[in-house]
Design goal:
Layout lengths: L10 H21 L5 H12 L3 E2 H8 L3 H13 L3 E5 L7 E5 L1 H23 L3 H19 L8
Antiparallel strand pairs: 1-3, 2-3
């Protein structure tokens, strides 16, 4: 006899619901400083990789080119980053943070750090560490090449 789970028992469903709740929490915290989680992700990646191409950035963030362009237009309009054509390939745009962008990223990082402390406070130190390890394991298995159920 097959073991049928109800939709309430499915791990994937719970992961999704927890992701949404944690994302909404972080978005609310970012909004307190007039920021958003997507913009923090963009600035974080650009800050870690100055001169990254728009195409590489879109791939790392899992965004379409047009969606990323929308975010970059907004952030560039706020003076937080610059886009310049690559000198060797004029089809490529390189993205870098401005001084104001670095300052804004630091403020966003502070909000994210505070939000992370709140999330961690909801669990014991041991449970938080164990949860992180399990999430990393799931992520690694699901993003490996091939079948995620292969040993």
């Amino acid at each position: 006899m097959a073991n049928h789970q109800t939709s309430m028992d499915r791990l994937g469903r719970q992961l999704y619901l927890t992701f949404r709740a944690s994302r909404e929490y972080l978005d609310r915290q970012m909004a307190t400083i007039g920021a958003s989680m997507p913009h923090w992700f963009v600035l974080r990646n650009v800050g870690a990789q100055p001169g990254i191409s728009q195409r590489e950035l879109a791939g790392q963030l899992g965004l379409t080119g047009s969606t990323l362009s929308h975010h970059l237009d907004r952030l560039e309009g706020q003076g937080l980053l610059t886009r310049t054509r690559d000198t060797r390939d004029r089809r490529v745009f390189r993205v870098e943070l401005t001084a104001e962008g670095k300052h804004r990223l630091a403020a966003m990082d502070t909000v994210a750090d505070e939000a992370d402390l709140v999330l961690r406070s909801l669990l014991s130190e041991r449970d938080a560490s164990h949860l992180r390890q399990l999430l990393l394991k799931l992520h690694d298995r699901l993003t490996d090449e091939g079948d995620p159920v292969a040993p």
